[in-house]
Amino acid sequence: MSKPVLISIPVSNLGRSVQMLLEEKGVDYEFETASPHSDAVNAVHPLGKVPALRHGELTLCESEAMARYIDKVFDGPKFFPEDPTLCAKVDQWVSLHNTAFDTSMIRQYVLGYVLPKMAGKEPNREQIDASLPIVKKHLAVLESALEGGFLVGDSLTYADLANFPTLAYLPDFPESAEMLKEFPNVVAYIDAIGARESAKKTQPRRG
Ligand SMILES: N[C@@H](CCC(=O)N[C@@H](CS)C(=O)NCC(=O)O)C(=O)O
């Protein structure tokens, strides 16, 4: 079977989750850089978003679908546990990330800085300010869940790989960097997962 090809951009938090999984499992893969709504992405993803995945005849969109497929098809440690209780908890944290934390932390807060900057404009203060209480509430949820160092059980799962790339952006922006001082478990988590080889290899360039 051919190598899987992950189509994304290095700054995509959702693409980084899937790429970290490939790294953690030791899969031989290719990374194809293609922006959202480019021809290469539109050919695979019906909404033109990244990440997208090609593996032989299979094309996939949605980061969690890719992660589940990769975890099943390739050898290496499992990141969706066999145990139904633990696996349900992984699903819970992936869903909380994809439906709430990603929205508040990335789409509303971080992109409130990044998208205007790319267009040579000032940060979108209204959007940033509106996101801050929600980001804080979401960090408080994670803070109490991270007493044990991982979101589920006592080892790395896809729950961590889904959430880490989003949290890793927060020290780089002023209000969230300040906010993190109240959330030591989250800071320790960002540092610990950030020290893994899979995080170092997928670290997007800053600036
Ligand atoms: N639910 C999708 C979300 C993908 C997504 O929103 N990707 C962002 C980049 S991180 C994107 O392509 N944004 C461009 C757009 O929404 O037009 C997934 O989990 O893969």
Automatic annotation (TrEMBL):
Residue ranges constituting the GST N-terminal domain according to the UniProt record: 2-78
Gene3D superfamilies cross-referenced by the UniProt entry: 1.20.1050.10, Glutaredoxin (3.40.30.10)
Domain GST C-terminal: 83-207
Keyword Glycosyltransferase part of the UniProt annotation: no
PANTHER family the record matches: GLUTATHIONE S-TRANSFERASE GSTA, GLUTATHIONE S-TRANSFERASE-RELATED
InterPro entries: Glutathione-S-Trfase_C-like, Glutathione-S-Trfase_C_sf, Glutathione_S-Trfase, Glutathione_S-Trfase_N, GST_C, Thioredoxin-like_sf
Name this protein carries in UniProt: Glutathione S-transferase
Pfam families: GST_C (PF00043), GST_N_3 (PF13417)
GO terms of molecular function: transferase activity
PROSITE patterns, A to Z: GST_CTER, GST_NTER
Species, as recorded: Kordiimonas lacus
Entry keywords, A to Z: Transferase
SUPFAM superfamilies: GST C-terminal domain-like, Thioredoxin-like
